[in-house]
Specification:
Elements (H helix, E strand, L loop, with lengths): L1 H32 L14 H20 L7 H12 L4 E8 L3 E9 L10 H14 L4 E3 L8 H10 L3 E7 L2 E7 L7 H56 L3 H16 L3 E8 L4 E7 L4 H6 L1 E3 L3 H9 L3 E3 L22 E9 L2 E10 L7 H44 L3 H15 L3 H17 L1
Antiparallel strand pairs: 1-2, 1-5, 3-4, 4-5, 6-7, 6-11, 7-8, 9-10, 10-11
Helix pairs in contact: 1-2, 2-3, 2-6, 3-6, 6-7, 6-10, 7-10, 10-11, 10-12, 11-12
């Protein structure tokens, strides 16, 4: 690609050099022709000096465009328009012949937007074929309305064009048409041929730019795949090394951010007893704030994803979506891009993963699909961690109940209610209250 770009710069420099020489030649021509300007006044011809002043900027402008970066960058419109302005043409078209489709338009500009439509491609194709058959370096027709072929006269009438220039060189055919009849000078024919070849280079440049974009997309896709593979490997490691739910959730947030390149990740878990979603992990929020964030099924974008079991991707202005629910405690709600994916493992709904980007970001279908795979695996990890937490909570609670029953002389049901009441009053998990009872008893025994 660097070699290609360098070659286009050389082309631009080459034609810029020609421009300087032509400008110098134009000054000489002016001096030589001032004395006998009245003697040469062909019909409907712009003076030679004025013609040079028109087409030299076009030649220079196209050369500079070709010397610029690869890709389209407006070339498909700018070049034929400069081409047309340089020679006072109303239509410019660069065509190539396709074995299956016939002639196709690569570049084009039409002042009245009559000819360069898909429905009129057969007319341009016939005209291109006619140019090829002439076997001249440049075909110049002063008035199509006076030609012997009836179809050329009909073309002139129907599409409001009279004069024509055309040239062909593998694999291109270049057409230029004007609204008025005119006699083209030799200089104009030469300039047309030069501009035509530059336009052919522009088509190649655009094509190479598209190939480069395709390669870039493929590389980006490969990077996404690599990030997701790393994420899945990390999830496998989490399963083997940690079963504490809080630790698992914090690790998953890190993994998802690494896989997506997002600025924020929020994990909502489904509480099937209360039929609601609770924010349980985030890379930006403290536990106190997270405990207050709850959503009903169907509420907000997250609740919609939970209800429909489908991902949602919004590239910009996510807060303007009618489904959006704003939380003042979450600055992330002001972020631009929003990707929400349900966590489902073996048919069981586990929760929702939200990934947010601070600035606009278009998620590809490939990214959404791959994140959904990660979410599925994450769902399994969370279910295992929840099961482990439930078993551990039961063990710790049973031990704490035994301590209360012994110390206070109460029954099992009353001991359980005490632990439950304290958990509700302090807004802490029963497991933490039970652990606190056990630690306090161990301290007393140690004394």
């Amino acid at each position: 690609m660097l070699r290609t770009r360098a070659s286009f710069r050389k082309v631009g420099a080459f034609f810029n050099g020609i421009n300087k020489g032509l400008k110098k030649g134009a000054r000489i021509v002016r001096k030589q022709t001032n004395s006998n300007a009245a003697a040469r006044t062909p019909k409907r011809i712009v003076s030679e000096d004025t013609t040079m002043e028109q087409w030299m900027p076009a030649l220079s402008g196209i050369s500079q465009k070709l010397a610029g970066p690869s890709g389209n960058n407006g070339l498909s419109v700018a070049i034929p328009k400069m081409f047309a302005s340089g020679l006072k043409l109303s239509v410019v078209a660069v065509l190539t012949q396709d074995q299956t489709k016939g002639f196709v338009i690569n570049l084009g500009w039409d002042k009245k937007e009559l000819l360069l439509q898909e429905s009129h491609l057969s007319v341009l194709g016939r005209l291109a074929g006619w140019i090829i058959k002439q076997r001249d370096e440049t075909v110049a027709v002063s008035d199509l309305g006076l030609e012997k072929e009836e179809w050329l006269r009909e073309l002139a009438e129907k599409y409001e064009v009279r004069s024509l220039m055309g040239t062909s060189f593998e694999p291109f055919v270049v057409l230029g048409m004007g609204e008025d009849s005119r006699e083209f000078t030799k200089e104009e024919e030469q300039v047309f041929g030069c501009l035509a070849r530059l336009s052919g280079l522009a088509v190649e440049k655009i094509r190479r730019g598209k190939e480069h974009e395709q390669i870039s997309r493929e590389l980006e896709t490969q990077r996404i795949i690599e990030r997701v593979i790393e994420a899945l490997n990390e999830i496998t490691r989490i399963v083997g090394s940690a079963l504490d739910l809080k630790e698992v959730l914090e690790s998953i947030v890190k993994v998802v951010l690494q896989a997506t390149g997002g600025d924020a990740c929020l994990l909502y878990l489904y509480d099937d007893e209360k039929d609601e979603l609770r924010l349980k992990a985030s890379n930006t929020r403290d536990p106190g704030v997270m405990e207050r964030i709850k959503l009903k099924i169907g509420e907000g974008i997250t609740g919609w994803v939970a209800r429909e079991k489908k991902p949602v991707a919004i590239g910009s202005n996510a807060s303007q979506d009618p489904r959006f629910k704003f939380f003042h405690e979450l600055p992330e709600d002001r972020y631009q891009a929003f990707l929400s994916v349900p966590m489902i493992h073996q048919g069981k709904f586990v929760g929702v993963i939200n990934v947010q980007h601070q600035y606009p970001y278009q998620h590809s279908q490939y990214e959404i699909a791959l994140l959904s795979v990660v979410a599925q695996q994450v769902g399994g990890v969370i279910l295992n961690a929840r099961l482990h937490e439930l078993l551990e909570t039961r063990k710790v609670t049973e031990r704490a109940k035994g301590i209360l029953m012994k110390e206070k002389g109460i029954g099992e049901a009353e001991a359980f209610r005490l632990i439950q009441r304290e958990a509700m009053n302090s807004r802490r998990p029963m497991r933490e209250i039970a652990q606190a009872i056990i630690i306090a008893a161990e301290i007393r025994e140690a004394k």
